[in-house]
Amino acid sequence: MMETPVSTKLDIVIPAWRMHSQLFNNALEGISEEAALERLDNNTNHVVWMAGNLVSCRYWIANLVGIPEKDPNEDLFKEGRALDESLDYPTLADLKKNFAEISPKAYEKLLSVTDDNLDEEYSFGMNISFVPENVLNMIGMCIGREDYLLGQIGLMRRLLGLKGMSYDINESLKY
């Protein structure tokens, strides 16, 4: 039986994934649990919501590539659910732990997906004529959301009086 080759369609996604893994840790560095729940003028989302949505993207991608693990905070963040101040959100420490648990598993799977896996239909209900609804494009949408959320956290760092996000690289982080 002929072996199905690993897809090259994710060649642009893999470096972004790895950079986001670095930036997730850098963006949250020095933000206290208290500060992470601040909303500026009650208009912004708080950092916990932003970080939780980013972790949710990692679980979403993991699910897309066949990892059945469920986001422990799915009820709070699934599909970009809006901030609801009546709900109790996890701590940044818990979100960092969730991120560190799912990210390497999903990364390893991303390295072995095939074109057939990526071409599978996946409805994300946006009905955009020029975006085929498949696994590949949903992964792309999630990576784009991670970019957006990291930018929001970076801005919040400055608004909370912290220095800008570092682009230092931890070479021991392999996902």
Walk me through this protein's architecture.
The protein has 6 helices and no strands. The protein has helices at residues 13-28, 47-64, 74-77, 92-110, 115-119, 135-159. The two termini are 31 Å apart.
Any key phrases for this structure?
6 helices; mainly alpha; 175 residues; 0% strand
Helix and strand element order:
HHHHHH
First CA to last CA: what distance? 31 Å
- The total strand number stands at 0
Weakly predicted, low-confidence segments:
none
The description of the largest β-sheet is: none
Rg over alpha carbons:
17 Å
Shape, principal axes of CA atoms = globular
- The count of helical stretches stands at 6
Helix/strand-derived class?
A: mainly alpha
Strand residue percentage: under 5%
In short:
50% of the residues lie in helices and 0% in strands. The protein is mainly alpha-helical.
Write the layout of secondary structure elements.
Layout: H1 13-28, H2 47-64, H3 74-77, H4 92-110, H5 115-119, H6 135-159
